[in-house]
Design goal:
357 residues, alpha/beta, TIM Barrel, 3-stranded mixed beta sheet, 12 helices, 10 strands, 12% strand, metal-binding, PA0069 family radical SAM protein, iron, MJ0683-like
Length: 357
C-alpha cells in the first residue's frame, strides 16, 4: 500500500456501509484522483467529539462468557483505532459507520458521573463489580479532555464500591492515587491489554494506543503500588501475534501481572469487511493466509457468535493457541491469582460516608 493512500493514525482505511441504512455513501477513485491532481484535501482526518445524553450509564451484561455482570462506557467509539475491535459494530446503532466513523466520531456521555452516583445511592442497588469499560476504552484520548473516568473513579472511592478497568492506555497512571486508595479496601482490579511485543505490529493493529514499552511499564507501576493487574493477551490473531504468546506471558509476569486471559480473534458483523480491507492493504503478502487461518478457527467463517465457543474457537489452530495459553499459565503464573473484589463495604457508604448507626 503506498504511503499516499494510507490514512495515517487510523486502523480502518475507509467507512463501510451501515447495515441499518438503505442508502450508502461512496468515495469514487476518479474523484480522489482529481483531488490529488488539484492538490485538494479530501479528508482532514480530524476527530469529532459529540455529546449524547443516555438515561442510564450502567448496563447489565447478559452474555454468559465475558466474565462481567455490569459494565459502563463513558465514551462510544474509540480513537485508539484497533482494527479488530468488536465494539465497532455498536457504532452502527448510533447511525455511524463501524469503519473510520468509529475512530473519528467519539460520543461523549458528559452526564456519566451523575448517572453513576444516582445508581450507587439507590437503596435497591446491591454492590456488584462494575467494569469500565465493557465496550470502548475508558482511557482513550478523549479522557484527557473530559476526565469522565477520573470523576467516576472518585465516586467509586466515595461510595466504597468495587470497580474493574479494562484499558490499553498508560493514561491510567494519572489516577494512580485514586487507584491506590481503592486497592486499600480491595475495591479495584485492572486489566491491561497487550497484543504484541513488536512496535511494528502494534502500530498497524492499534495505531493510537500506548507503546508496548509504556504498557509494560504501566503493568509494573500499578503492580508495584499494590493494584492487582490482569493482562489481556487479546485477541490472538493467527500468523500476526500467535507466535508471541509465551514471550508476552513471560514479559507481563515479570512486570508483576497476577494473571493473563485471551480470546481468539473473531470478525463479526462489519468487522470482517473492515479487517479484510485493512489486511489486504497493509499486509498483502500474508492477507489470504491470515484470513484463512481465522476461518479455520471458526468453522470456515470469519464470524462466530456461539456462547462458549466464540472466544476460544475450534479446530487445530485454535487448539494450538489455547494449549499455548495453558502452558504460559503453568510456566509463568504458577501460584499467582487475581483477588476477588470486596462487595461488603458499599452498603455502609450509601450516602457517601460510613454509617455509624
Amino acid at each position: 500500500m503506498s504511503s499516499k493512500s494510507i490514512i495515517k493514525g487510523r486502523g480502518a482505511q475507509r467507512n463501510i456501509h451501515n447495515r441499518f441504512f438503505e442508502l450508502s455513501h461512496e468515495m469514487r477513485d476518479d474523484f480522489l484522483e482529481y483531488c490529488h491532481k488539484e492538490g485538494e484535501v479530501v479528508d482532514k482526518n480530524k476527530t469529532q467529539y459529540l455529546n449524547v445524553f443516555p438515561k442510564t450509564i450502567v448496563n447489565k451484561v447478559k452474555s454468559p462468557d465475558v466474565g462481567m455482570a455490569y459494565s459502563m462506557d463513558m465514551y462510544q467509539g474509540c480513537e485508539h483505532g484497533c482494527i479488530y475491535c468488536y465494539a465497532r459494530n455498536s457504532h452502527e446503532f448510533w447511525g455511524f459507520s463501524a469503519g473510520l466513523d468509529f475512530e473519528r466520531k467519539i460520543l461523549v456521555k458528559k452526564d456519566a458521573p451523575k448517572l453513576l452516583e444516582d445508581l450507587l445511592k439507590k437503596k435497591s442497588w446491591k454492590a456488584h463489580t462494575i467494569v469500565m469499560s465493557g465496550n470502548t476504552d475508558c482511557y482513550q484520548p478523549a479522557e484527557q479532555k473530559f476526565q469522565l473516568t477520573r470523576k467516576c473513579l472518585e465516586l467509586f472511592l466515595k461510595y466504597k464500591h468495587p470497580v474493574a478497568i479494562i484499558t490499553k492506555n498508560a493514561l491510567i497512571l494519572r489516577d494512580i492515587e485514586i487507584l491506590k486508595a481503592l486497592a486499600e479496601d480491595n475495591l479495584i482490579s485492572v486489566n491491561i491489554s497487550i497484543t504484541s511485543l513488536s512496535e511494528d505490529t502494534r502500530r498497524i493493529l492499534e495505531p493510537r494506543t500506548a507503546t508496548i514499552k509504556r504498557r509494560l511499564q504501566t503493568v509494573k507501576e500499578l503492580s508495584d503500588n499494590g493494584i492487582p493487574v490482569n493482562v489481556m493477551l487479546a485477541p490472538i490473531i493467527p500468523s500476526i501475534n500467535s507466535h508471541e504468546i509465551l514471550p508476552m506471558a513471560k514479559a507481563v509476569s515479570e512486570a508483576g501481572a497476577l494473571g493473563i486471559a485471551h480470546t481468539v480473534v473473531r470478525l463479526n458483523g462489519a468487522i470482517g469487511e473492515i479487517f479484510s480491507d485493512w489486511i489486504k492493504k497493509t499486509l498483502p503478502d500474508r492477507a489470504d493466509k491470515v484470513l484463512h487461518q481465522i476461518e479455520n478457527c471458526h468453522g470456515g467463517t470469519l464470524n462466530e457468535s456461539r456462547y462458549g465457543v466464540r472466544m476460544r474457537g475450534e479446530g487445530q489452530i485454535a487448539k494450538q493457541i489455547n494449549d499455548l495459553m495453558a502452558l504460559a499459565r503453568l510456566k509463568y503464573f504458577r501460584g499467582k491469582t487475581m483477588p476477588k473484589l470486596n462487595t461488603s463495604l458499599h452498603e455502609q457508604y450509601k450516602d457517601g460516608q460510613m454509617k455509624l448507626f
